[in-house]
Amino acid sequence: MSPIHGSPGADMTWFRHLTIGQKLLVSFGILLLLLGLSLSAILFYLARINSYVERHDRITVPAIVSATDMRRRIYEMTLLLHSLRENRSDVDRRNTLDGMQRLESDTRSALAFYRTTHTARTHPVLFRMLTQHGQAAMADLEDHALDETAKLLEAFGTSWRAMTAHQGKRQEAEADLAFNEAVALTRQLTDKINTLIDLHSKITTEMKSEGDSLFRQSALVILALVVMLGLLIVATYVIVNTQIARPLKSLAKTADHVARHELSAGFDPWPAQDEVGNLARSLGTMLENLRDRTRALERKTRELEGFTYSVAHDLKGPLREIEGFSSLIQQKFPETLNQTTRHYVSKIRTSALRLTALINDLLRYSRLEQQALPMSQVNVRTLIDHILSDRLPAAPQASPLIHVALPFTHVRGEPTSIQQALVNLVGNALKFSRDADPPEISIGGAVRAQERIIWVRDNGIGFDPKDADRIFGLFERLHGQEEHEGTGVGLAIVKLVMEKHGGRVWAESCPGKGSTFFLAFPDAPSDGGTA
Q1: In this predicted structure, what is the pLDDT of residue 454?
Q2: Residue 529: predicted pLDDT
C-alpha cells in the first residue's frame, strides 16, 4: 500500500504543525491578500488613466479651443481691417473701429487667460510627463509662441491705428503702407496661433502615448497578479489535496480493507500534526487493538471450537449407545415388554435420535459460522435436481407435486452451503405440507435490481406473518415436537448461509395457506456459467 504522505521540504516543517483550519486560514489569507493587491492595482491604474483623461479634457482640449477662438478673432479683425480701408462713411468707420477695438481687447484677454491657464508649465503633472517623454522643449516652444503672439498683437494694434490716423489726414500713401503692414501682421499672428494648436496636438499625442503606456502597465500588473492568484489557487488545491483529501482517501481505503476483515492492512504514519495526523494515529492504535482482540478472539474461538467438538464427541458416544441399546431392547424383547415399557423405550430412543440430530445441526452451524466461503458460479438448477432426487424417495407422503421454474441457472456463491440452505427449505416444505391433499411444492426465481432470487413455496400449514422474523432464530420453533419434528436450527442455518453470501432471506405466509421462503443472492457477472 502506498504511503499517504509526500516528502515536504524542510522549509515546510512549520506548516505541518498547523491544524487543517490554520492551513486553510493561511491559504485563504494569502488569497485575500492577493485579491486586495489586485484590486488596489486596478484602482491605482484606473485613477492614473482617469487623470490622463481629466488632463486631456481640462487642459489640452480647452487650449486648442481657446487658440482656435483667437484665430477666429484675428480673421475677423482682418475683415474689419479691409472694411476700414474701403469705407468712407463716418458712421460705418465708427462702428468698424468699435468692433476692431473690441476684437483686439478680447484677443488680448484670451491670450492672457491662455498663458495663465492652458500652458504646459502651468500644470506640473503635464510638464513632468513631457519631461519624462523627452519633450520638455514643447513647453519652451509654447512660451516662445505666446511671447511672439503678444508682440505681434501689439504691433498689429499700432499698425491699424496708424492706418486710420493717416486716413483721417488724407495721407493715402502712408495709410496704404500701414494697411499692408497690418495685413502682414495678421498672417503672422495666424501662423503663431496655428503653432500653438500644433503644439497642443503634439501634447495630445504624448498624452495618448502616456495613456497607452499606463494601460499596458496596468494590464501587465493585473496579468501578473492574476497569474499569482491562479498559482495560489493551484497551491491551495495541492495543499488541500495532499494535506487533506489524499490522506483521507488513503485512510478510507484502509478502513474499507479493515471493514472487510483484512486486518493485515495498515494506516501509514502521517507526519503532520493536524487533525488528519491525529486521526491516522488514532486509527492505527485502534487497528492494533483490533488485531490484538481478533487474535485473542480467534484463540478463544479455536479453544471453544475444540471444546465444542470434544463435548459433541463425548455426548454423541453415549447417545449412540442409548439409541443402540434401546433399539436392541425393542428388537430382542418385543413380547416380554408391556405397553408402558415399550412406550418408554421408544421415547428414550426418539429422544436420543433427536438429541443426536440437534448436536449434528449445532456442529454444522458452528462450522459454517467459522468458515470462510470461497465464491464461484454455482449451478443451482443442478443442486435442486440432486436435492429433489435425494429427498423425494424419503418423503413420508406419497407423490408430492413438484414444480421447478427458474429464470436462471447460476448464482455466485459457495455450493455446499447453498445446497445445505436449499435442503433445509425443501425439507421444511415437505414436512409442513405432508397433510395437504395433495402436497405441492414450487421452486422458482426472479431477477431483480442487482439480485437473483430463489423461492420455495408449499401449500402446507403456514404460520402467522408476525412470526416471519422470529422463525430464523436459533432454536426457534412454532410447533411442538409431537406435531412436527425438528431441532429449531435449520432456518437459522439458512439465514447464516445468506449472511455469509451478503444476501437476504425472508418468508411470507398465512395460516392454512402455505409458506414461501425467499433467498436473494447479490447479482454478479457470470464466471463461465449460464445466466
Answers
A1: 93
A2: 38
Same domain, 305 and 407: no
Give me the amino acid identity at 94: R
Same domain, 347 and 450: no
Q: Which helix (H) or strand (E) holds 326?
A: helix 275-332
Question: Pick the residue with more confidence: 249 or 308?
Answer: 249
Length of the chain: 531
On the 0-12 / 13-18 / 19+ scale of CB atoms within 10 A, 342 is middle
pLDDT digits (tens, 9 = 90+) for 11-22: 556 666 677 677
Q: How confident is the model at residue 289 (pLDDT cuts 50, 70, 90)?
A: confident
Q: Which amino acid is at 215?
A: F
Residues 69 and 158 occupy one common structural domain: yes
Q: Quote the CA–CA distance of 294 and 484 in Å, as a whole number.
A: 41
* Bridge partners for 508 per DSSP: 516
User: Would 458 be classed as within a structural domain?
Assistant: yes
Task: Work out how many domains the chain is built from and give that number.
Answer: 3
Burial-class residue 300 by CB neighbours within 10 Å (0-12, 13-18, 19+). Answer: exposed
Distance CA 255, CA 286 (A): 11
Sequence-separated contacts (24+) of 306-312 with Cβ below 8 Å? 308/362, 308/363, 308/366, 309/363, 312/359, 312/362, 312/363
Contacts of 254 (CB under 8 A, 6+ apart): 1, 265, 266, 267, 283
With contact defined as beta carbons under 8 Å apart, do 251 and 4 qualify? yes
Whether residue 302 is found in the same domain as residue 431: no
| 168 and 235, same domain (yes or no) | yes
Same domain (yes/no): 142, 238:
yes
Range of the domain at 271: 266-370
The full DSSP string for 158-205 is HHHHHHHHHHHTT-HHHHHHHHHHHHHHHHHHHHHHHHHHHHHHHHHH
User: Is residue 95 located within the same domain as residue 184?
Assistant: yes
Q: Do 59 and 118 touch, CB atoms closer than 8 A?
A: yes
Instruction: Provide the residue type at 438 as one letter.
Output: P
Asked whether 468 and 506 are in contact (CB, 8 A), the reply is yes
Q: In this model, does residue 75 exceed pLDDT 80?
A: yes
Mean pLDDT of 442-468: 89
Evaluate if residue 480 carries a pLDDT over 60: no
User: pLDDT, tens digit, for every residue of 481-515?
Assistant: 556 666 777 888 888 889 888 899 999 888 888 89
pLDDT of residue 217: 76
Q: What is the CA radius of gyration of the chain?
A: 56
Q: Tell whether the model's pLDDT for residue 9 goes beyond 50.
A: no
Q: Are 80 and 103 in contact (CB under 8 A)?
A: yes
Write down the pTM of the prediction.
0.46
State pLDDT tens for residues 363-395. 776 676 667 778 889 999 999 998 888 777 655
- Would you say 299 and 276 are in contact if contact means Cβ atoms under 8 Å apart? no
